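Thread: Newbie trying to understand structure tokens

Hi all, I'm a second-year student working on a class project, and my supervisor (Dr. K.) asked me to get a predicted structure for one chain before our next meeting. I've only ever worked with sequences, so writing a 3D structure as a token string is new to me. If someone could post the tokens and maybe explain what I'm looking at, I'd be very grateful. Here's the chain:
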Amino acid sequence: MKNSSKPFENQADIIDKTKQKIRHEIWNLLEQRQVALFPKPVIGRIPNFKGAVEAAKKLRASRQFDQASIVKVNPDSPQKAVRENVLQDGKTLIMPTPRIKHGFLMVKPGKLSHLQIAEAATIAGAFKHGEKI
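---
Reply by user tm_fold:
Sure, no problem. This is what the structure looks like when written as tokens:
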């Protein structure tokens, strides 16, 4: 029986292929179990899912979150609740711009109203209320 892998395939290539295989399995499961939320299709992205808000609550209840004063959170849809929690709790939010095209944004909750915090937790709002770093 022939081994289909390249004879000199390096460890990084094997890891990348394994990660991609797992991603596809998860994307398929999310669709099959109908827990994937907008935006769709989920393939090729960090997918939003039923339970993302609950996951954000669990993170907020953690000792690590409580002790942090600055929190880096990705701009993806399922992490919006985490970004809101960061700002509501008076912590500084660091958020990469999509695809890190414009670097990172820093949003300080300081004088933001409740409505402004909700806005600042979005990509457009972070550009509006934050500063590039």
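A couple of things are worth pointing out once you decode it. Residues 11-50 form one domain. The two ends are 54 Å apart (CA to CA). Feel free to ask follow-ups in this thread.
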